[in-house]
Amino acid sequence: RERRRGRVRMSARNPPRLVNLAAMSLLRDEALAICSLEYLPMELYPPLFMAAFSLRRSETLMAMVQAWPFARLPLGGLMKKLHQETLEAVLDGLDVLLAQEVHPR
Question: What residues contact 15, with CB distance under 8 A and at least 6 apart?
């Protein structure tokens, strides 16, 4: 699978999973992705988060961190793909979450 000009090129050996294609499609419109977070099933958060991180969708990442439905946000694997702007977006989302007086998790 190769990315070129915002498209996913499929390989017969390793086709992209439907959930990954859905995440990529949703992230084409960052405002829609952010508005959709409250309606997404929990199972879609990890693949959407990974796609947003890979595509460097900073606003979506910040919103996802604040709405993260799990007790942990595992960032260790992302450190290999380090990009300063996307990492700052994740940390900004954590900062906003910690500044709230009511901590959801």
Answer: 1
